[in-house]
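Example record

Each entry pairs one chain with its bound ligand, zinc ion.
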Amino acid sequence: MNSRSLLKTLLLWFSIILLGVLLWKLISAPGPPSGGTSKNSDWLLLLLNVIPLLLLVGFCLFLLQRMKAGSWRGGEIGASRTRTGIGYDLHRLEWGRPLIIGGLELPFDKGPVGHSDGDVLAHALCDALLGAAGLGDIGTHFPDTDPKWKGANSLLFLEHAKKLLTDKNFAIEHVDAVVITEKPKLGPHFPKMREALAKALGVSLDKIHLKAKTNEGVDAIGRGEAIAAHVVATLSSR
Ligand SMILES: [Zn+2]
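Structure tokens for the complex follow.
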């Protein structure tokens, strides 16, 4: 039971109890003296006095059950639960291959080696989303041994990941990414990348945040032989 339906159930219970108490007050109010109360109306009076008590006991049992199940904790009604996932990817760069990052092909003389289009940002993002939802990783859903994914547009992976998240009632709250490459400069391409990623994930632009770093000339990335990305994704459960 999510917090919204829990709140509705609580309100329903409060309404029932209030109604019961009102009824009880109405029945037990002293009326004009009558010549003689029948035995039947005594039983009816007793029954109507017991109903609010039973409702109160039922409500207490319901609360105890919800607290035991962890669905309700003081002060958390209406709050959604958040989960975080991390994703990382790296691809070697080779001459003459298209450089696709965040669903966008950039003008450059090198590109990633990979089974799909080698989009390092989309792959790390996919892993972060799947990880946050506890759904494994990109290799589980799109194995690089499957010829179906050869040269595939990696935005398809993100669209599929979004469907899996929706099936499990997860909403994407925020994505923060850093792409590490010596060249080319990525900043000017970020607006279009954010658009492409937001569209694939069905979220607004403000939920996608991108950053770029160089590796200061160190290691394979610094020598322009590889490109990498780190992504942290935050989800909320609905
Ligand atoms: Zn990859």
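The beta strands are 82-95, 99-101, 104-106, 110-112, 170-180, 208-213, 226-237.
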